[in-house]
Amino acid sequence: MSDQPRRDRLPVHGVLINPAIVLSHLEPAGRWSAIAIMTKSAPPPPGIYVPAVLFFKENEDFDVPAIKAHILRLAQGGVTGIVVQGSNGEAQHLSHEERKEALRITRETLDENGFKDVIIIAGTGAQSVRETKKLNQDAKDMGAAFALVLTPSTWKPSMSKEHILRFHREVADASPIPVLVYNFSTVTAGLDLDSDTIATLGEHPNIVGTKLSCANLGKLIRLVTTHPAQEFATLVGRSDAFLPALVLESTGGIMALVNIAPKAHRRLWDLYQEGRMDEARDVQRLLSHCDAITGKLGGIGFLKAIIAKEFGYGGLTVRAPLLPSSVDRLSGRDAELMKELIDLEKSL
C-alpha cells in the first residue's frame, strides 16, 4: 500500500482528516465558517435494528414488565441495536420524562441480561433545534449511543433545503452523540429528503447515517456510492426491501417487523452473508408480505396484538389518536402468510 495520503484526506497531527469537515456549513450570509477540526464520528455497526414498540397498561402508564420482556426477546433474537422512542415507540405521545424512562428501562434490561453490546439509538427529533438538542443530551445521559433525528414539519412550507440543512447541522454540532438523519415522510407531513440533501448532511463530522423509511432503493444506492460504509450507515427502513437493500450494499435496516420476528430477520442476514441467495429470497418473500399486512391491519396496534397473542406479553393499548388493532382482522392468505412467519420465528 502506498504511503501517500489519500487525496480526499488531509494529514493533521498524524490523523487523516476529511477536508469536507474542516469547513462547516454555509452560513446565511454566504460565508463558510471554520469549525474545530475533528475526525468523523463512527457510524453504527452493520446489522439489524428494531424500532421497539412500547407497551402500556390500560390506563396508558408504562407496562414495565412487558417492555422488559420485549427488549429481552429482541436481544435474544440477535438484533444489533434497539431504537427507543422512534415512531413505532410512540415517541410523539411521550413526555420528556417518559422518553428518559423508556431509555433507562431498555439500557438496564440489556445490561442486566448480558447484552451490554446491544446498541441503543434514541429517536430525538422535535419541532425545534432547542428541544432536539435537549433530547440528544437526555439520550446520552440515559445510555444511548446514537440519535435518530426527524426533520421538523410543523412549518413545512418554510422548510427549504437551506432550512433543512441548517436544522440538522445545528443539531449535530451540539449533539454529544453521533446523529442519524431520519427520513420518514409519513410522519413529517410528506416532507421527503432527497439523496442530494442527505448526502450533503453526511459530510458533517457528527452525522453518521440515515434511516430511509421511504425504502427508495434508488436513493439508497446513490447514498451508498457517495459515502463509504465505514463513515456513513445507510439503513433501509422497511423489511419489505431488506434483501434488495443488502444486495445494494446497505449496512442493514431499522425495521418495524423485527418487533415480531427478530430471528427471521437475523436468518435472512446470515443467509445473505453466506451467499445462500435462494434461501434468503424465500425468507424475504415472507418479510415482504407480512410487512405489507402489518401496515394494512393497523401498524403499531397490530404489532402489539400479534406480540401479545404469539409471545405472551404486552397488551393492545396505544395512545390516542392511534387505535388498537386485533389479530382477528387476519383472514385468508394474510393469515396463512403471518402464520408461516410466526412458525419460522418460533423454529429458529
From TrEMBL:
InterPro entries: Aldolase_TIM, DapA-like. GO terms for molecular function: 4-hydroxy-tetrahydrodipicolinate synthase activity. The active site is at 182 (proton donor/acceptor), 211 (schiff-base intermediate with substrate). Keywords: Lyase. Pyruvate binds at residue 254. SUPFAM superfamilies: Aldolase (SSF51569). Coiled coil: none annotated. The keyword Lyase applies. Belongs to the DapA family. This is 4-hydroxy-tetrahydrodipicolinate synthase.
